[in-house]
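Technical appendix A lists one of the benchmark inputs used to test multi-chain prediction within the project. The record comprises two sequence entries:
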Amino acid sequence: MGERTTVKYPYPKVLITNPLNSSALAFPVLECIHIVGFAFSIGTVAIVDFSLLGIGMSRQTPAQLARDTWLWTLGGLVVMLFSGLLLFSSDPDMYYLNWPFLIKMFFFVSAVIFHYTIHRKAVSSDTPPPNGKLIAGVSLFLWCGVIFGGIFIGFVYPGLSLG
Amino acid sequence: MLLTFVQWIQLTDFFTALRGSAYVYPIVLSLHMVGLALFGGMILMTDLRLLGVTMRQRPIADVVNQLRVPKRWGLLLTATCGFLMFGSKAEEYYYNAFFRTKLILFAVVIVTELVFYRSVYGNPAALDQAPQVPGNAKLAAALSLLLWTSIACCGRGIGYIEPPLDKIHAQIHVRHDATAVAARGLYIQKGQDHQDVASAN
């Protein structure tokens, strides 16, 4: 064992504040971008899902609609994800300890995985899948779960304590 | 009169119960956002189709006609939830600048729908027959995109303003007192009364 050296980190210089938090407008503007992003992504997914359920655009096949809308879904997802990350960065500890946020992340990850695996397969061929209605129902349920989780974040304050 | 009306709405048994519940408000707000996501998305896609940006292989008539019914149901869901939230805190909403802006934008949306209904939304088959999407259809779509996006943003803004109802109420009382005193002729005679009123403000 050699000589011990202690390194003092210049904490006050390293810990700079997030510039998002020094502007009162940054958070609400990001929220608006987040909302428009999810209107695009979830709205386009809903058009395809409703067509699987026989509602709305049922004259087109779900596969045709999926080909029409996939880019808008993906674009909306990207906008939603990056604005969401910025919102998260405003107070990471709070979000980490907030149980609706954790539920939201569970629903979000499930919804994205479901969308790009099972859902994608179901709408890839022009012949409607036999379990199309179930797949549409699961898809809508997962995306609604994301929205509910997102709204409840703002209504729960004491972190993980449920009481 | 309008103020009395919103106060009455808020004080009905139904909305008093709604206000008192911790879970109902976020659930109603969540459903409001579900309506926004599902049916706001459909409005976006319809407008972008009219602008020729998306779903170009589908006839305009197919997009407009088939999405009409689900959009109406969606509007019903979103508007119902919106009204429930308004009713539970009607007086706060009454003073809220974003809420007022949102209502004005709704009025503008209704006017544009009425103006463009006959030429655009009511007759989409004619738009398909034209060699190019007519200018007024594109104008209607652009206006719709702008207005609905602004409405969504105003909706988010409502939550950031909390009108100081206590101060507003106190000020109203002071004004009532001042007029009552002035009617008895004391307001002008006694200088210190005037002082009291000023400090209370």
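The two ends of chain B are 23 Å apart (CA to CA). Chain B has a mean pLDDT of 84. Comparable benchmark entries are summarised in Table A2.
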